[in-house]
């Protein structure tokens, strides 16, 4: 029997530094209601969807910094989003900054959760591939201090059963790394949910930054195709506190094709009726890992790690 998931990407425009959680949650609920009205049973919000992208600033005051993190999920200000999801019977993915008491200390993670249609959290992921720097960089108009404000995630890349399929999560820079998708692909993932906050000046090199939009889609389309999975990528975008951020939220098929894309740089809902069995066909043919993948070849490379390749013929000494 064909399995469909009606999925929505709920792109968000800028969140001002002055916006309260209550105001932001009201925006999320409005997007959730629109997604539901368009038939969605799952809506994907962006990375750090509850606040402005605070890693763009050096914040030395700990009290000021911790106001951007959530100590509980749901908390007093986010409970309304969970309640609305339960009322509407729609699930959601949400990215946020997490403050967790673990190992006898407070730890900070860039986190996402997957919530089912009852408003119950069924999965949590913590960002593994943290971009940017731990110290401010001279000459930058906006900093990118994720390495300063977050620890590397300690969850790995698990998958969860939900919405009639196998669901996975990642965040922003994770999308650029092939192992993100492959680890989930080896677990049979059928839909990868990811949110991003990507400034156009993130590398500081004009020739690379000019290709930000291209690289954004390239990484998600390649990850989708090579692992036979749907990918739902949702942006927080527009000019946020002076920083221009990438939009073009997309829903990508296991074929690698973009089937829906946002056209604005503000709050916008896009949807797709995702046939999970498209991925199954790819996994039974081109990307049948059991038949065609050769893990022994990777072991050989790992064993030779650090070894230099043999010299070219004209580099061999004849003396």
Structure description:
The protein has 319 residues and is an alpha/beta fold. The chain has one domain: Carbon-nitrogen hydrolase (Nitrilase/N-carbamoyl-D-aminoacid amidohydrolase, 4-Layer Sandwich). The protein is built from ten helices and 14 strands. Helix 5 runs parallel beside helix 7.
What's the helix and strand layout?
Blueprint: E1 4-11, H1 21-37, E2 42-44, H2 62-66, H3 79-88, E3 91-102, E4 105-115, E5 121-126, H4 146-149, E6 159-162, E7 165-171, H5 178-185, E8 191-196, H6 206-209, H7 212-226, E9 230-235, E10 238-240, E11 243-245, E12 250-252, E13 258-261, E14 268-275, H8 276-284, H9 289-292, H10 295-303
Parallel strand pairs: 1-2, 2-3, 7-8, 8-9
Antiparallel strand pairs: 1-14, 3-4, 4-5, 6-7, 9-12, 10-11, 12-13
Helix pairs in contact: 1-3, 5-7
Organism: Rhizobium oryzihabitans
GO molecular function, one term: hydrolase activity, acting on carbon-nitrogen (but not peptide) bonds, in linear amides
Pfam families: CN_hydrolase
Spell out the key features of this protein:
6-stranded mixed beta sheet, alpha/beta, 26% strand, 319 residues, Nitrilase/N-carbamoyl-D-aminoacid amidohydrolase, single chain
């Amino acid at each position: 029997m064909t399995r469909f998931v009606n999925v929505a990407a709920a792109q968000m425009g800028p969140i001002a530094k002055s916006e309260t959680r209550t105001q932001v949650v009201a925006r999320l609920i409005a997007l959730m209601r629109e997604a539901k009205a368009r038939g969605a049973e799952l809506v994907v919000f962006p990375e750090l969807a509850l606040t402005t992208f605070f890693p763009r600033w050096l914040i030395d005051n700990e009290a000021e910094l911790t106001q951007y993190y959530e100590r509980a999920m749901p908390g007093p200000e986010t409970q309304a989003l969970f309640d609305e999801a339960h009322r509407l019977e729609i699930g959601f993915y949400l990215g946020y900054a997490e403050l967790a008491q673990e190992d006898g200390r407070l730890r900070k993670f860039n986190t996402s959760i997957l919530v089912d249609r009852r408003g119950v959290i069924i999965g949590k992921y913590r960002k593994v591939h943290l971009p940017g720097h731990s110290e401010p960089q001279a000459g930058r108009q906006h900093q990118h201090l994720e390495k300063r404000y977050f620890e590397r995630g300690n969850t790995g890349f698990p998958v969860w059963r939900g919405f009639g399929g196998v669901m996975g999560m990642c965040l922003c820079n994770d999308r650029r790394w092939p192992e993100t998708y492959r680890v989930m692909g080896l677990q049979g993932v059928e839909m990868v949910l990811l949110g991003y906050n990507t400034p156009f000046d993130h590398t500081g090199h004009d020739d690379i930054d000019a290709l930000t939009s291209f690289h954004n889609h390239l990484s998600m389309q390649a990850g989708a195709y090579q692992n036979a999975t749907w990918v739902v990528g949702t942006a927080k975008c527009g000019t946020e506190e002076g920083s221009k951020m990438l939009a073009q939220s997309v829903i990508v098929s296991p074929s690698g094709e973009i089937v829906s894309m946002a056209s604005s740089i503000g709050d916008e809902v896009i949807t797709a009726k995702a046939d999970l069995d498209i991925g199954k066909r790819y996994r039974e043919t081109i990307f049948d890992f059991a038949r065609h993948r050769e893990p022994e070849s990777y072991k050989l490379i790992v064993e030779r790690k650090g070894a230099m390749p043999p010299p070219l013929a004209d580099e061999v000494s004849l003396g």
